[in-house]
UniProtKB/TrEMBL annotation:
This is Acyl dehydratase. Residues 18-142 form the FAS1-like dehydratase domain. It holds the Pfam family FAS1_DH_region. It comes from the Bacteria. Gene3D superfamilies: Hotdog Thioesterase. CDD domains: R_hydratase_like.
Length: 155
């Protein structure tokens, strides 16, 4: 049996988190292939995303959907902070501050803003503020997320 061997890449349990803790994610450059794959997967066939140099667009360059920016950052958070401990996304409030273009590199700072143990089971409601930046250090998105996280096993 291997149950007593720690799992590689295991996320943080709610007991490991404190209000004010902060982490910085890795950075990722968004490519044309990322944009095309995302559009094909989601059906976001909007002209500003599928036509290079769309004349009716308000943004110069090759903009990407805010949802793509968000999902890359959530991927970082999942892989590093809540893998195996995240139980549910309960609430999300998002604000787009600036466009992200193909070729931009994004990363984020995640800050724990609340940890509230639940009365049922070994879990807690954890809130965080996520600030997303481009390669120039400009804020491009901010959002708050409230998640249900598992606790460390008591057995």
């Amino acid at each position: 049996m291997t149950d007593n061997i720690p799992r590689m890449g295991q996320g943080a349990y709610w007991q490991d988190l404190q209000v004010g803790q902060r982490w910085r994610t890795f950075r990722r450059t968004i490519t044309e292939a990322d944009l095309v794959a995302f559009i094909n997967a989601t059906g976001m066939l909007e002209a500003i995303f599928i036509e290079d140099g769309y004349a009716g667009g308000a943004i110069r360059g090759r903009p990407v959907p805010g949802a793509l920016t968000y999902t890359f950052i959530e991927g970082f958070i999942l892989q590093s902070l809540i893998q195996g401990t995240g139980l549910a996304m309960l609430e999300l409030h998002q604000k787009i501050l600036a466009p992200v273009l193909v070729g931009d590199s994004i990363d984020a700072v995640v800050e724990v803003t609340a940890v509230r143990p639940t009365s049922k089971g070994n879990r807690a409601v954890v809130s965080s503020r996520i600030e997303v930046f481009n390669q120039r250090g400009e804020a491009v998105m901010e959002y708050t997320a409230t998640r249900l996280l598992a606790g460390r096993s008591t057995t």
